[in-house]
């Protein structure tokens, strides 16, 4: 959406062009990149997304990355979510290879970067037109009209891209479910306690929780 709004290329999954373009990635360096935007998401939903990306796999996932992750975690039956998910979360929170740093470390590195534009996935879903206009202006793309923003947003909605409504899941696709809060369908009380211990401070730092009381509220979660 940003590339279209700013009229510049988005060389996704390839080397960047020697010209102005949108460069997407997960970095722990390069703090001098121009016009940085930090795109945040609730770390618990990031964890679930990571699970389906690197444990289950989809059309854009490297087969080698999936095989390595399954081996590192000790996955026997990939369809056994109940057995696999807690082990996968321990790996995700402590020593992932893809990427080679934890979500908590990434937050600690970038959350206080005052030189970057910060945007939350949840805010983008709630107010996509206004957030796209705000991001385009912040990154030097000028003032984007409401009509242009609405046209771009309509093109890139989950439904327009997949033919499915948000919440209609296809586990084998990169655009899997298109909702916020799916972690509640996956986190057991034990996984919640683990996440809180290893990344709870970062949830608070980003404003997703005010304290650790969310852990006690997961006791009634229906994990499926």
Q: Work out the radius of gyration.
A: 18 Å
Q: SSE order, as H and E? A: HEHHHHEHHHHH
Largest sheet: 2 strands, parallel
- Give the overall silhouette: globular
Count of helical regions: 10
Helix content: 40-55%
Q: Which class best fits the helix and strand makeup?
A: mainly alpha
Mean pLDDT level:
92
What is the number of E strands?
2
Strand content: under 5%
Enumerate the spans where pLDDT stays under 50 for 5 or more consecutive residues: none
Which oligomeric state applies? single chain
Major beta sheet, strand line-up: 1-2
Distance from first to last alpha carbon: 33 Å
Structure in words:
The protein has 224 residues and is mainly alpha-helical. Helix content is 45%, strand content 4%. The protein is built from ten helices and two strands, in the order αβααααβααααα. The protein has helices at 2-6, 43-56, 63-73, 81-94, 103-110, 121-126, 128-138, 146-155, 158-162, 189-205, and strands at residues 37-40, 117-120. Strands 1-2 form a two-stranded parallel sheet.
């Amino acid at each position: 959406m940003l590339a279209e709004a700013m009229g510049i290329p988005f060389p996704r999954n390839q080397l960047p062009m020697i010209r102005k373009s949108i460069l997407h990635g997960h970095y722990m360096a390069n703090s001098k990149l121009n016009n940085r935007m930090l795109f945040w998401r609730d770390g618990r939903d990031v964890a679930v997304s990571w699970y389906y990306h690197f444990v289950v796999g989809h059309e854009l996932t490297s087969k080698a990355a999936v095989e390595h992750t399954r081996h590192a975690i000790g996955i026997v039956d990939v369809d056994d979510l109940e057995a696999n998910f807690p082990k996968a979360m321990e790996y995700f929170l402590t020593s992932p290879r893809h990427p080679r740093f934890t979500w908590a470390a990434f937050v600690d590195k970038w959350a206080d970067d005052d030189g970057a534009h910060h945007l939350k996935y949840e805010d983008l879903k709630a107010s996509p037109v206004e957030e796209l206009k705000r991001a385009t202006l912040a990154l030097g793309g000028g003032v984007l009209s409401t009509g242009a923003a609405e046209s771009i947003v309509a093109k890139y909605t989950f439904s327009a891209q997949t033919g499915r409504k948000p919440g209609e899941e296809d586990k084998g696709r990169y655009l899997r479910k298109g909702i916020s809060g799916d972690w509640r369908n996956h986190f057991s009380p034990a996984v919640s306690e683990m996440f809180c211990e290893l990344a709870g401070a970062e949830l608070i730092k980003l404003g997703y929780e005010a304290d650790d009381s969310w852990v006690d509220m997961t006791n009634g979660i229906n994990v499926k």
